[in-house]
Design brief:
The protein is an alpha/beta fold. The protein has a single domain, classed as NAD(P)-binding Rossmann-like Domain (Rossmann fold). Helix content is 48%, strand content 15%. Helix 4 packs parallel to helix 6. The model has no long low-confidence stretch (mean pLDDT 97). Bound molecules: NADP nicotinamide-adenine-dinucleotide phosphate. The site of NADP nicotinamide-adenine-dinucleotide phosphate has 33 residues, from helix 1, strand 2, helix 4 and helix 7.
Length: 247
Amino acid sequence: MNLTDQTALVTGGSRGLGRAICLELARQGADVAFCYAGNAQAAAETAEACRALGVRALPLQCDVTDPEQVKAMTDTVVKEFGSLRILVNNAGITRDGLLLTMKPEDFHRVLSANLTGSFLCLKAAARVMLKQRYGRVVNISSVVGLHGNAGQANYAASKAGLIGLTKSAAKELASRGITVNAVAPGFIDTDMTAAMTPAAREASLALIPAGRLGDPADVARAVAFLADPQSGYLTGQVLAVDGGMSM
Ligand code: NAP
């Protein structure tokens, strides 16, 4: 892989998978812009770690559910970097609960952050990528979007929706040099999974043939592969990075 001279925007880059993705893209030579919701301290740490790898880093506070903020963010990236060649839709949240007790606002909030936010970022980036006749988009879905999960109807619906978005956009944009793929991580060791109860964690581990939770770097390497200029004939795919969980 070689991402020298590439420019990337990663949503939710301040922590967890997003930070690991920023670092991997930077390690391969890309200049990296990323957004975060509110954790400025974590964002500054990601930016510092990217710069230490010798690339430019641009942290931007942006709520991906707000179309105007998303447009301002992509405009800033293009102004600062001169192009936007890689988009990674990674920002996401959970609001877990069983179907019968799930509040409608928790359903909408998760759909809004995980699915609508990705749509808005993809649309804004696609305008730039169509002019460039080049782009690599990677949407971070989940094995939960492929198989469902009790207590996560909202999250599973958002991640399954992201797969439909990925395949539709891939068909629309393929003739213009733009690929759109999804990565479906299994259970990865981040703040999000740290919130699981010990019992839920044990139950998840039992489903993973590899016998361990994933490391954020496991996912980041898959994203960098899909973001590589040489991956141009690979589009509309869903790559599970899950230790064999969804076989
Ligand atoms: P995380 O540690 O909770 O980090 C979430 C990131 O998203 C943070 O950078 C957060 O910013 C940002 N964010 C949240 N809402 C946002 C919004 N409205 N606008 C902009 N940024 C927002 O999560 P993670 O575990 O790294 O997960 C990252 C992605 O991978 C998510 O889409 C998640 O669904 C997916 N995923 C995770 C796992 C897993 O096991 N961890 C498995 C499958 C898929 P702040 O730091 O400012 O809050």
